[in-house]
Amino acid sequence: MKFWRQRKDEELDAEIRSHLDEAIRDRIARGEAPDEARTNALREFGNVGLVKEVTRETWGWAALERLGQDLRFGLRMLRKNPGFSLIAILTLALGIGANTAIFSVVSAVLLRPLPAPHAEQLVAVIRGAGLNGNTFSHPDFLALRERNDVLAGLAVSEIAELSFGNGIRSEMLTGEVVSGNYFSTLGLVPVLGRTFQPEEDRVPGAHPVVVVSHTFWQSRLDGAASVVGRNITLNNQRFTIIGVAPAGFTGTSAPFTVSLWLPAMMSAQVFPNRARLFDDRRYERFAAIGRLKPGITAAQAQAALELINQQLEQAEPPRGNQPPADRSLKLIGTQGVFTPFFRSMAQMGTALLAAVVGIVLLLACTNVANLLLARATARRKEIAVRLALGASRWRLLRQLLTESALLALLGALVGLLFAFWLNQLLMAFKPPLPASWRFQVALRLDWAALGFTLGLALVTTLLFGLAPAWQASKPELVQALKTEAGMPHGRRLNLRHALVVVQVTISLLLLVGAGLFLRSLLQAQQLDPGFQTRNRLTFTVMLGHQGYDNARQQDFARQVIERLSALPGVHSVTAANFLPMGVMSLGAPLAIEGRTEPPDAPPLFATAQVVSEGYFETLGTALLHGRAFTAQDTADAAPVVIINEQLAHRFWPNESALGKRLRLGPLSAPFSEIVGVAQDTLHALGEPPQLTTYRPLAQQPTARLTVALHATGVPQALIANVRRAVMTLDPNLPLQEVNTLDEVIALQFWPMRICAALLAAFGLLGLILAATGIYGVMSYTVTERTREVGIRIALGAAPRDVRWLIVRRGLGLTLLGTVFGLSLAFMVTRWLSSLLYGVSVRDPLTFVAVPLLLAVVALLACYVPARRATKVDPLISLRHD
């Protein structure tokens, strides 16, 4: 620093000499003698120190010195008022930390690139709506890859559930079936072994090889260097490990993490029931990802690929009389979660969270601004003295804004700690998905989050510091310099009062949102889903993954029900292809015998459950008419079906549905006789009961078997015995989704529960900040009016009347903020209608209870300082400055 300053001084001396020579030449040009011109010029430039100081400002050195002075003075002022500083810093830390945490969420799910070299060149290729991202068949992928000249590589993948057979450690894993060029397109190099070679991507079923993830290698294969060449069992097939993917790479199916990758040519072993569809152009199960060639933009690539896509569509138009659909191609970036369905959900969720924490930050800023205004009142004399001694208003503004910036920076530092803690808390709130669906969103405070926090600190400095600094820098000098501050104008609405109104408005908006979600959650939890969830334990086994044919599926279902029914503590057992309100639901085309639909009518579909005997008894679903399935409903017997009330009322509203016939599935499927009508059940929260059919498991085998047990006690106590019973039938058959039925349907409530919890927490924080703001303003109002209170009491005023005089002002501000808040809430909450269940966005109870709660809190915040004021001795009040 000394060297830098010395160098600048030398440059300034040279500049002064240059100006001196120029001044001498000008004087000589005006007719002065050379000696006279030099003497006058030297006299003009005689105060070299002053010239240096003035000139130094052009180099910014003086500005740096003044900034240092401002920072030192600001730190002294903060140390001088530790209570004020602590409250302001913590308030800002809550607002800044919450916003930093949500920025981490936004960064993780929307902005973070794939961990691949030159990730900005990677694009996801999607056809049509493509909500799940799987929009390509294998033939279309090959054609698009060979014909284009805009992509350096194009690869496809399909997520798959895989049974990892390892005896007692058997489990379900999430894997990806990928094209042979998958890793080369992404530019990834394995840490051990190799990735897929071209010949492993040509012949179906010829190369049972697998690449495992770094995490799987470390956790399940003990991180052994000799893992390459080892065999593992997946879906009852032996695969050879050929490589380990680089650390940090978990696939292209975010937010789900992938444990291993298999070549697409092994699809028949992964999906046995789909083997014949692999070469079908309309079997669109693959998601595509490509790498742009250097110099090619995404728009250019999209135009070139769309031309090839149109050629493919013209070569083989859609089958049947299906209406034309959007089949165009589009390219999207691969940042964060880029599957359209999950990305749209992430955008909606993060937008709601960002709006909430933004409101919290605004509330924190108004609270700190109010504190600064109150503090400026105590500093009126100091500021007036500085102005009277010649300080400029800009100098005072700069000093006050520097103090605000210090508060914001200290609040940001503490806010980073709060953001780290909040990130850990948010990662704990994972959706209750099956264990094989390894859901992971890594929230971390990276450089982007730190830069965001610093920028937010600067913004908040202006938000909460500018208005108080502007008002504090223009006091009434004469009144401020007097020994006594004087009687304030108690009826005037000043900036502090306006900020209280803003705080009440924002707090009420947060509380209304929290109230609506809490009411919605309570309504949802009280609904009748049409089945019982208490004391029910469920689990799922993927029989198809283990190569079970129809006969073995039937035999396994029969044996597992018999073995589990014999366990102590089990009341009844049933099995089905899926359960209502779970993570899965299947449907099938529906046709009613003797009923002809109009040609332009949309096709009929019904939820198609396959259930064993005792299903309705075990789940507690009432059978309203007819009979349940019995042991006589075998594969050789006439096909039968049970329907729900919704289906019966739609097609046979005024007659019995028993004995009628319907067909599920393709035209080749036989008609089934309706033998019973069951109570309606819900399959998704927020949706009405769907048309539902139940067919006997003996007549319709299923490769995915979900077993439900009705326990006589705590269902979790049965888990160990259930695992042992299943292992005796097949030791390599892993159980997945082992949960109580309450936990199964919890996924339906998860978004609402998270929204309710976050809004309730932030709403409570807003209520505390609003109450603090009201209390602070009323406390300073009472302080300013101490003499007035003393005079009123000395003249005989009743303390009750004086208290009401003070409380009335605070309640008036609260009422004004409530009016603004309700008006704003009426406009904003209409955007929440799709997230609420059973509650209107204009719910009367919420819009009445929240203002009443806020009024009670405001009353207490006003009453405490008013009561304290009336307890002071009038003589002390009259002597108050």
Describe this structure in words.
This protein has 25 helices and 21 strands. With 881 residues, it is of the alpha+beta class. It has four domains: 58 residues; 189 residues, no CATH class; 216 residues, no CATH class; 189 residues, no CATH class. It has a six-stranded mixed beta barrel. Helix 21 crosses helix 23 and helix 23 runs antiparallel to helix 24. The N terminus is likely disordered.
Q: Which class best fits the helix and strand makeup?
A: alpha+beta
The number of helical elements comes to 25
Helix content: 40-55%
What distance lies between the first and last C-alpha atoms, to the nearest angstrom?
48 Å
Strand content: 5-15%
**Rg over CA atoms:** 37 Å
Summarize the structure.
The chain is an alpha+beta fold and 881 residues long.
Supply database-style keywords.
single chain; 881 residues; alpha+beta; 4 domains; 6-stranded mixed barrel; 6-stranded mixed beta barrel; 25 helices; 21 strands; globular; disordered N terminus
Walk me through the topology.
Blueprint (H helix, E strand, L loop, with lengths): L1 H28 L4 H11 L3 H12 L1 H20 L1 H30 L10 E6 L10 H10 L3 E15 L5 E8 L3 H5 L5 E2 L15 E4 L1 H7 L10 E4 L2 E8 L15 E4 L3 H4 L16 E6 L5 H18 L13 E5 L6 H39 L1 H9 L4 H36 L18 H26 L4 H5 L13 H31 L10 E7 L7 H16 L4 E7 L10 E6 L12 E7 L3 H5 L3 E4 L13 E5 H7 L9 E4 L7 E7 L13 E5 L7 E8 L7 H11 L6 E5 H44 L1 H9 L4 H30 L15 H27 L3 H5 L3
Parallel strand pairs: 3-8, 5-7, 14-19, 16-18
Antiparallel strand pairs: 1-9, 1-10, 2-3, 2-6, 2-9, 4-7, 5-8, 6-7, 11-20, 11-21, 12-20, 13-14, 13-17, 15-18, 16-19, 17-18
